[in-house]
Amino acid sequence: MKKIFWLAGENSGDLHAAEVLAELNKRGKQYFHFGIGGKKMEKQNFVSVFPFEKFSVMGFFEVLKHLPFFLKVESKIKEIFLKENPDLVILVDYPGLNMRVAKMASKMGIPVLYYICPQFWAWKRKRIYDLKKYTKHIAYILPFEKDFLRAENIDSTFVGHPIAEEIKIELSKEEFAEKYSLDLKKKWLGFLPGSRNTEVKKMLPVYFETIERFDGQKFEFLVSKAETIDNVFFRGIMRKSSAKIKIIEQNNYEMMKYCDFLVVTSGTATLETAFVGTPFIIVYKTSAISYEIGKRIVKINKIGLPNIVLRKDVVPELIQNEVNAERISEEIKSVLNSPTKYNEMANELREIRRILGGKSAAKETANIIEKMLNE
């Protein structure tokens, strides 16, 4: 039986990898899938060798604090490679650790497929040379990455973006309203604080302050809770707000679709929201140290993936010190109170669906995996 080692270190990677695993499982061939991944991958006969939640770290300073853990992980992976000698290593996003694992695997003669490559076009541009050196193939998900990869003669394939097949709307607006006791006559404001505890800890209190600036008689307030967020931790923060807030745990895509406006913490959710098409704003806040480091090394002037993909400023972005209740509420009102602005943004966002849709990332990536295993 062929052995495939996977490394997906965060929630979005777990979801994207699980879709590929499901596709491979459908095809009937027997592979042993193991490595680092989350609950969604485990549901697809994946064997995890490390507690997944420990990998959800974001920001330069935060990663530095967890360095002993990551060094231990690297050492363990090397042992696994020596003992198991996998037929293929598949790395999913998560470049901090995955780039080092790519180098390790390559030096040991194990072929590497990188699915969802590092955003080298934004920062650490030299990574493209390491990708060329240490990977056998790259399955990329953003169309404009083609120009960079082809320029370096890197074997690569555009597989489409995984969100195109992952976003499923299962409830009508009326069914969704009934499930969460929402008033259809009110406007709905949605807040997505992120999929990491550190993000939620920073963003939820700011979102509460923002909510307090709106009339509960006219608005419903929805806050999403990712399944990666600890329940006790989340409820503890929620108790600090006196506002009438509805927690959305299982129907994030319905929330994105049916809200009148959304406030979304920077990350994969921004692209998902853009794909669904509801107007929103992007917010991003990290530790002061991480922000200062980031300012000096990031080479692009946008942080939101929708704006990067569209190559223009469509969705407003609030960064670091701009992330406060006053600025967020101003941006919400600016768009909601102007039908022209609102409709312009909604029309621009339709282009995201055209650019990213049209292919099945799971099927395309599964094809690449099978081809590499047969070579």
Textual characterization of the structure:
With 375 residues, this protein is an alpha/beta fold. The protein folds into 2 domains: 2-160 and 359-374, Rossmann fold (3-Layer(aba) Sandwich), CATH 3.40.50.2000; 173-356, Glycogen Phosphorylase B (Rossmann fold). Helices cover 49% and strands 16% of the residues. The chain has 18 helices and 13 strands. The strands form 2 sheets. Strands 3-2-1-4-5-6-7 form a 7-stranded parallel β-sheet, sandwiched between helices. A 6-stranded parallel β-sheet has the order 10-9-8-11-12-13, with helices on both faces. Strand 9, helix 11 (231-238) and strand 10 (245-248) form a beta-alpha-beta unit. Helix 4 (67-84) runs parallel beside helix 5 and helix 13 (268-276) crosses helix 17 (339-356). The longest helix has 18 residues, at 67-84. The chain is globular, with a radius of gyration of 21 Å. The two termini are 15 Å apart.
